[in-house]
Amino acid sequence: MSRTPIVARTLPALRRALDTLRARKATVALVPTMGALHEGHLSLVRQAKRRASKVVVSIFVNPTQFAPNEDFGSYPRTWKADLAKLAAENVDLVWGPDAKTMYPPGFASKILTEGPALAGLEDRFRPHFFGGVTTVVGKLFTQVRPDIAIFGEKDFQQLRVVTQMARDLDLGVKVIGIATSRERDGLARSSRNVYLSDEERRAAPALYRSLKETAGRLRDGDKIKAALAGGAKLITAAGFELDYLEARHAETLAPIRSVADGPVRLLVAARIGTTRLIDNIAV
């Protein structure tokens, strides 16, 4: 039977709720989200429940990680539906601050990271992005003080950046990456999938298929340049405009010369219509 989670919208309410959760020395897992929850998010919640006795889900559409030409204003916001889904999963606490709570008047600090944040992947196309992500995630970690934090591997560069930040700043949080949740046809689940037209949705699984084919070619001994060229051809033939398709070291995201330099991760970002999708797989 589901139960309604505690909902905190202010910092004092959050602190009171967390004190209650920790009264019996409970372990706390945080699942950070921007709402518009789908099955991928709920799979993260279920993984969190396996790893901790109490689960906190944050819902905050973070304005600082959107550029002026991006979709902050139109990003889907489904608060009531999100709460119903989290109640069905027996989440203990939902942290739903507004922008003024997260960034009050006079706010003037930012967490900037290097290493995987400057890998030449998402940062090349969205140079504003990781400064916004690390600042808001750093705040969430200090506000909630979780024992563990659960992130999906779909945003793989983000996972590496957040992991590095938590380690470098001694935030006391173990960051855990969970395998990408996919539709039956292989498309990575994303809140932005709702932007796809019917025709675009039918074409979108080509992104994952190209990753699998490229990974297979690399495992069979193809050179990286040739395998990536073949994958890029498949992606553009499906109607995508390719931002990047890269083979990188899975831990550092540094460029590699061969599979022997691995472990290897393939990462892709491409646009179809007005929607930009990202994905990645291990080789």
TrEMBL record:
Pathway: Cofactor biosynthesis; (R)-pantothenate biosynthesis; (R)-pantothenate from (R)-pantoate and beta-alanine: step 1/1. The active site is at H41. It catalyses: (R)-pantoate + beta-alanine + ATP = (R)-pantothenate + AMP + diphosphate + H(+). Keywords: ATP-binding, Cytoplasm, Ligase, Nucleotide-binding, Pantothenate biosynthesis. SUPFAM superfamilies: Nucleotidylyl transferase (SSF52374). Beta-alanine binds at Q65. It holds the Pfam family Pantoate_ligase. The keyword Nuclease does not apply. GO terms for biological process: pantothenate biosynthetic process. (R)-pantoate binds at Q65, Q158. It is an enzyme of class 6 (ligase). Catalyzes the condensation of pantoate with beta-alanine in an ATP-dependent reaction via a pantoyl-adenylate intermediate. This is Pantothenate synthetase.
